[in-house]
Request: fold
Amino acid sequence: MIKKNSQNFGFSLIELMVSLSIFTIVVTMSVGSLLVLIDANAKAQNMQQVMTNITFALDSIAREVRTGSGFYCSNTSTSLDEFTTQDCMNGEYLSLVEGGSSLTGGASDSRIYFRYNSSDKTVDRRIGSSGTWFPLTSAEITVTDMSFYVYNSESGAEGNDKQAYVTIFIEGHAGQLESVDTSFAMQTTVAKRILDI
Reply:
């Protein structure tokens, strides 16, 4: 007589459906967490790039302000002599006479010009009145607003013992994709280092 074994050793359809459902839920949650981490990493890299580039631009301007003189601020770019000064509020152009001659040694004059280029959305610098404008910010950064505020530009003049200082405000964003776009707004105030009295 042959004995037949009637036990089933496989999974039932219900057990298979339940295990697949649980697996799908776990994978979906894991992929969602991974995508959030990738997005956060991209934003962190954008912010680091923004901070590095904007800090470089602001430090370049601040270094020249600390050692410079003859501050002139306006909303239009003009060629100036070394003695012309002008305070302003919310100007797009800043000009100053370089303290040394490291940048302006071969230029037509000793003035350095900074501007907010609203068409290219960059911060630009020009050496001398006949020089070419060069961007200080990279192409990945879009500067949406920049203003210069100059106070006491006539420091050192007869009867004026106040220190000259410049406040710079800059605002913009960086990032090629809207989902990882990083906004920034920075402000710094720089005083002339050498007391001009």
User: Anything to note?
Assistant: The chain is about 30% helix and 30% strand. The mean pLDDT is 83. The longest helix spans residues 13-67. The first strand starts at residue 69 and ends at 74.
